[in-house]
Amino acid sequence: MINKKSFASLAASFAVSALSLPAMAGSLTIDGNFSDWGIKNNGTVAGWTPNSGITYVVEDQSNSNGGYLSPGWGGQAYDAEAMYLTTYTRANGQTYLAIGMITGHDPSTATGGNSYGRGDFAIDFGRNGTWDFGILTADRTATLHQGDVVSTSNANWATGLWSAPGVYDPANSSYVTAVTGGTDVGNASLAISSAFGNMGTLGGNHWFYELEIPVSVFGQYWGANGPTESFDLQWTMLCANDLITLDPVAYVSEPGSLALVLGALGLSGLARRRKSRK
Ligand SMILES: [Ca+2]
Ligand SMILES: [Ca+2]
Ligand SMILES: [Ca+2]
Ligand SMILES: [Ca+2]
Asked: Which of 63, 121, 156, 197 has a CB 3.0–4.6 Å from the CB of 152, allowing a cystine?
């Protein structure tokens, strides 16, 4: 599995014009309910696994290890637990990027004292450390509101408390948390669930963020056949005590699609020749 994934990202880095993302035949309802993603809060590890056509990452933690999460602490109350992503085209011809995220962080957490509120979703096209878009989960300025998609540079982001895992250094943190400026380029649909339990096996309360973004807002970064560059999607809270990051292009949904990519590159023939030489 690990080999397959790294081979897939190698293939993706060669096949720049053929970045393929997971896609769904149907569409989702942006209502804060994850049943349409196939996610289940049934008290099992398998409950985190979504329907096919969705890429995801799970990093479920608890209050063990002194509440250490990486890069900071806080246990379940600051646990970024899972990120999900898919794409689909609606009957109107418009293609959408949909994002799901599960966290143990209460969205109503106020910022003050030792407490930090929710952050925004961040996208880095090119995976080059420059965060190009934010999707706002709260009103951030007089003109940048919850649900806005904002074109950003890194100067348009607040950062967290940590400069590296376990290193408290707010002045030198590069972990982006919330948008502070930039250009409003469009609107996402956003719904946040109320608290639920029984997610996975580690206990605690959880919340689900569900988003849908028309890919036209990404301009040059999204063409007729999908994103023009690989990208990272990230979410954290205002302290960045725990982050969750998804690189969806590294994901290959079916062995057949990897074989297709490798075949197109002539790599499968290369692999066979190498093998026969041994
Ligand atoms: Ca839903
Ligand atoms: Ca957890
Ligand atoms: Ca986590
Ligand atoms: Ca970038």
From this structure: 156
Q: What is the pTM of this model?
A: 0.85
Cα 70 to ligand 3 centre (Å): 8
**Ligand with an atom nearest the CA of residue 82:** 3
pLDDT of residue 265: 52
Beta bridge partners of 210: 100, 191
Nearest ligand by distance to the CA of 212: 1
Let me know: does 70 contact 175? Beta carbons within 8 Å. no
CA of 180 to the centre of ligand 4 (A): 17
The amino acid at residue 114 is N
| Chain-centre distance for alpha carbon 125 | 12
Percent of the chain with pLDDT over 70: 83
Angle CA 216–87–260, to nearest 5: 110
Do residues 193 and 41 touch, judged by C-beta distance below 8 A?
A: no
The alpha carbon of 228 and the centre of ligand 4 are apart by a number of angstroms equal to: 12
Q: How far apart are the C-alpha atoms of 69 and 12, rounded to whole Å? A: 30
Q: Tokens 């509101």, residue?
A: 145
- Cα separation, 193 vs 106, in Å, equals 10
Rounded Cα gap, residues 259 and 7, in angstroms: 11
Q: Please say if the pLDDT value at position 245 is more than 70.
A: yes
Give the DSSP H/E element, type plus range, for residue 82: strand 80-89
State the pairing for strand pair 148-151/231-237: unpaired
Work out the burial of residue 15: count CB atoms within 10 Å of its CB; fewer than 13 is exposed, 13-18 middle, 19 or more buried: middle
Neighbours of ion ligand 2 (CB under 5 A): 60, 79, 81, 104, 202
Evaluate whether 258 touches 90 at the Cβ level (below 8 Å): no
